[in-house]
Design a protein that fits this description.
Mean pLDDT: 98
Low-confidence stretches: none
Strand order of the largest sheet: 6-5-9-3-2-12-15-14
Number of strands: 33
Bound molecules: ligand BES, zinc ion
Strand content: 15-25%
Distance between the termini: 24 Å
Shape: globular
Largest sheet: 8 strands, mixed
Radius of gyration: 28 Å
């Protein structure tokens, strides 16, 4: 485990490496506890002169076996080797030399799942960000690019499959004299220079499905997806998603695949979702395996998105990589933008956009407004693993989207073409990226660049006035950006706001702006205060602004409930229409919260309840959209709206009261639509069918809200023919009718049906971990002893422990502190094995300061208890100390 050293890495300290490694030849002799790694590195000085300083290579928990330069074994005096560093003081007086390093590692004992490790008896690697240094000593930094040749040797029976990056060069039995050694080998060569974090190998015994893809220029690419034996059929959807991704990248970004092979391997122990290793993507099996009996529609959508994301990295990340880890958003933010656009094109754009914004608000906004806030491009880090955040990813993607909004689709594409052409083969920076947009469009993006450099969510206030006599509309806009932990003073941002002035017929009025600040349907807010006038407007319009969520801001608009209801019914922008309804929900919920806190009983406007009913039945809208329109803000969303001294119990009560009110006001209509949405034909995971299921399941939740209304959910559970409907019914029973015989029976049935399917048991864990109320603290404690749980497996830990803390406000924040205690103990237990996963789930403490004083105190105690542990990993210490600061 990498223990915290207190070292801080700073962007301004970046220096190019004095040494380069143009060529890397690796030989692995794979063994569970004694894997020998030989690295033959061609080292060259950057200057072209003999070296004038020591060569310092990175390591992490390494054991050096031998060291030789130009074929001569080094004597002990000429180097020092520690587990985390190899320093060679005496180097040849030449600009190029060959270094051979032998290390020995034990993949079986590697529970951190970084470097080379074993999962279900297979060998696999994870090298991003700094895992390669757990395999051999190296210049483990993304700006050192090398051409890799990899020879793998292993037991032929136990490990028949041997994969690495690039193309297979040769394979065969390992001869030992005249005898068959029982071992075999394979040699792989990747012609594209790459940073060490993109290295991968897989050794094991796996089943596979094969396919092929013909690129736009007619090259044939062999595609393979490797999964546990017996699960091959469940990889079909992933393969289909891969081929669609390859085609889409050609059509939309002009990007063609560049190797003869593209392999994907699914493993069941994986710290993240998936990894884009060149030509050999390695996936958490949750993002590969799906069939109707075991995967939900959300799982299918996740597979499609992650397959696309990792594939798209081939150009945005691999062909053009990052100069240093401060530039992480260069590949991640951009690639998220690309996978979002892909999913929008494959499914429904409006539905996709709403889902993205909900995710952004649920994850990124709290991060940006709490103690862990950091810019999309950070300037400092203690532990890089902790910067794979929703700010770098999702806000990073929003920034790219804003660039496209500002430039328009055409200039955006021309700029991207220039980026690919100019930087192919480079380790680039955000400045390089921004430059292509400036050059192509002739625009000055220096103020806009602050989106990369300043943390925090800007807020914008808007007011609209209509002067009937002057036939004029005036918009007043004001922006503000609150201080964040590392930046007290903020500069003004360039905020692109898509807008429309909606006339009484629901159509946008073609209003003429007087003065600058408006281009087409985009307002460019650049100053603190900005006033925009539109002339020639006779009727009073309703303002629709931040359409499509063109900027990731918090918007406060003076607008009446009538105007919002009007937008919720008529706005031509479907995102804005959804937003108007969501704002109405939020207002109703915060008001109900206050009423409950004051000891009263909340009531809701009949106009709102009727609007919801009408929206549910509006056949001009696709079912998936209607489902989103019926989904109330989550407890976390309501908490953020309230801001301070939060009482999670009152939030849950307020939300339940609104669910009941909407459900009872629309009971008959909802029941009719529920029946109408029942499946007719065979199962298909496509967007239209998934949308019908999602609408039906949202309605099931409303219809099952009244105490004792278990029938519909129980019968849906029993008759379900796919996992989406079964899991949804189970969740409704467990959450709405917790403790009822029907809920208890369904939970037991689910467990016995799916005991042998870990990914399905994860759903069972999640559903139980999110049952509202403090009793769930004990449930989670018990489930941690369930035979299907494993503290070593990240998917199990996330499903049970992670979900509990991230998605169960009333149990995690139990007033007596028992939820925090349980969680803190679990985090420490995970940390001893897997610091990355522990640190990630520990971020659930991030909003502790917004709680009411009693809970705040209990949460702080739990955080302090973690921080007082000695020998804390750098991962967990970094998170806990920033959270407490
Ligand atoms: N490069 C990352 C995976 C990664 C991140 C590995 C950090 C090791 C450390 C990959 O491209 C990625 O971003 N994966 C996401 C899923 C994606 C769809 C956003 C993930 O794993 O969560
Ligand atoms: Zn990525």
């Amino acid at each position: 485990m990498r223990v915290d050293t207190g070292q801080v890495f700073k962007l301004e300290d970046y220096r190019p490496s004095e040494f380069l490694i143009p060529e890397t030849k690796l030989t692995f002799n794979l063994h569970p506890t004694k894997t020998l790694v030989q690295a033959e590195l061609t080292i060259r000085t950057r200057s072209g002169q003999p070296p004038n300083a020591a060569l310092v290579l990175d390591g992490d928990e390494l054991e050096l076996r031998s060291l030789a330069i130009n074929g001569k074994v080094l004597d002990a005096a000429s180097y020092t080797a520690t587990p985390d560093r190899l320093t060679i003081n005496e180097l040849p007086q030449a600009d190029t030399f060959t270094l051979v390093i032998e290390t020995e590692i034990a993949p079986e004992h590697n529970k951190a799942l970084s470097g080379l490790y074993r999962s279900s008896g297979n060998y696999t690697t994870q090298c991003e960000a700094e895992g390669f240094r757990r395999i051999t000593y190296f210049l483990d930094r993304p700006d050192v690019l090398s051409v890799y040749t990899v020879r793998l040797e292993a037991d032929s029976k136990e490990t028949p499959l041997l994969l690495s990056n690039g193309n297979l060069v040769e394979r065969g039995p390992v001869e030992s004299g005249a005898l068959d050694s029982g071992r075999h080998y394979a040699v792989w060569h990747d012609p594209f220079p790459k940073p060490s974090y993109l290295f991968a190998l897989v050794g094991g015994d796996l089943g596979s499905i094969k396919d092929s893809f013909t690129t736009v220029s007619g090259r044939e690419v062999e595609l393979g997806i490797y999964v546990e034996h017996g699960k091959e059929e469940r990889a079909a959807y992933a393969m289909d998603a891969l081929k669609r991704s390859m085609r889409w990248d050609e059509e939309v970004f002009g990007r063609e695949y560049d190797l003869d092979v593209f392999n994907i391997v699914a493993v069941s122990d994986f710290n993240m979702g998936a990894m884009e290793n060149k030509g050999l993507n390695i996936f958490n099996d949750k993002y590969v395996l799906a069939d109707e009996a075991t995967a939900t529609d959300a799982d299918y959508a996740g597979i499609e998105a992650v397959i696309a994301h990792e594939y798209f990295h081939n150009w945005t990340g691999n062909r053009i990589t990052c100069r240093d880890w401060f530039q992480l958003c260069l590949k991640e933010g951009l690639t998220v933008f690309r996978d979002h656009e892909f999913s929008a094109d494959q499914r429904s754009r409006a539905v996709k956009r709403i889902a993205e914004v909900r995710g952004l608000r649920a994850q990124q906004f709290p991060e940006d407004q709490g103690p862990l806030a950091h810019p999309v491009r950070p300037r400092r880090y203690r532990e890089i693993n902790n910067f794979y955040t929703s700010t770098v990813y999702e806000k990073g993607s929003e920034v790219v989207r804003m660039i496209r909004t500002i430039l328009g689709a055409e200039d955006f594409r021309r700029s991207m073409d220039l980026y690919f052409e100019r930087h192919d083969g480079d380790a680039a920076t955000i400045e390089d990226f921004l430059r292509v947009f400036e050059e192509v469009s002739g625009r000055d993006l220096s103020q806009f660049a602050l989106w990369y450099h300043q943390a925090g969510t800007p807020s914008v206030q808007v007011a609209m006035r209509h002067d009937a006599d002057k036939r004029e509309v005036t918009l007043h806009l004001e922006q503000a950006l609150a201080p964040t932990p590392t930046e007290s003073r903020k500069r003004l941002m360039h905020i692109p706001l898509q807008f429309g002035l909606v006339g009484q017929d629901g159509r946008d009025i073609a209003a003429k702006p007087a003065g600058d600040g408006v281009e087409g349907d985009v307002i460019h807010l650049r100053k603190r205060h900005q006033t925009i006038r539109f002339t020639d407007v006779s009727e009073r319009p309703v303002l629709s602004i931040n359409r499509g969520f063109s900027a990731p801001i918090m918007l406060a608009m003076e607008q009446t409930a009538e105007d919002r209801i009007f937008l919720a019914r008529h706005d031509s922008d479907l995102f804005a229409r959804w937003q108007a309804l969501t704002t109405l929900y939020t207002q109703a919920l915060t008001q109900a919260y206050r009423t409950i806190r004051g000891g009263g009983t909340p009531e809701f406007e009949p106009a709102l309840l009727a609007l919801v009913g009408d929206t549910a039945g509006n056949e001009a809208l696709e079912p998936a959209y209607r489902a989103l329109a019926l989904s109330l803000p989550g407890e976390g969303d309501i908490a953020r709206e309230i801001g301070q001294t939060i009482d999670p119990d009152a939030i849950l009560q307020a939300r339940n009261a609104l669910v009941l009110a909407i459900g009872s006001a629309n009971a008959d209509g909802f029941a009719a639509i529920y029946d109408e949405m029942a499946a007719s034909g065979p199962f298909s995971p496509d967007a239209a069918n998934a949308g019908r299921r999602s609408l039906r399941n949202v309605l099931l939740d409303y219809l099952s809200a009244p105490a004792g209304d278990v029938k519909r959910a129980a019968s849906q559970y029993e008759s379900a023919t796919n996992m989406t409907d079964r899991a949804a019914a189970l969740a409704v029973l467990a959450h709405r009718q917790s403790g009822s015989p029907e809920a208890v029976a369904a939970l037991a049935d689910f467990e016995s049906r799916f005991r042998a399917e870990p990914l399905v048991i994860d759903k069972w864990f999640q559903i139980q971990a999110t049952v509202p109320g403090t009793a769930t603290v004990d449930t989670v404690r018990e489930l941690m002893r369930h035979s299907g749980f494993s503290i070593d497996n990240p998917n199990r830990v996330r499903s049970l422990v992670g979900t509990f803390a991230a998605a169960n406000q009333t149990a995690f924040h139990a007033a007596d502190g028992s939820g925090y205690k349980l969680f803190a103990d679990a985090v420490l237990e995970v940390e001893r094995r897997n610091p990355q996963v522990a640190a990630r789930i520990a971020t659930s403490f991030r909003s502790w300061r917004s709680l009411e004083p009693g809970r705040q105190d209990k949460a702080r105690q739990a955080l302090v208890a973690i921080s007082q542990h000695k020998d804390l990993s750098s991962d967990l210490r970094d998170i806990v100390e920033r959270t407490l600061a």
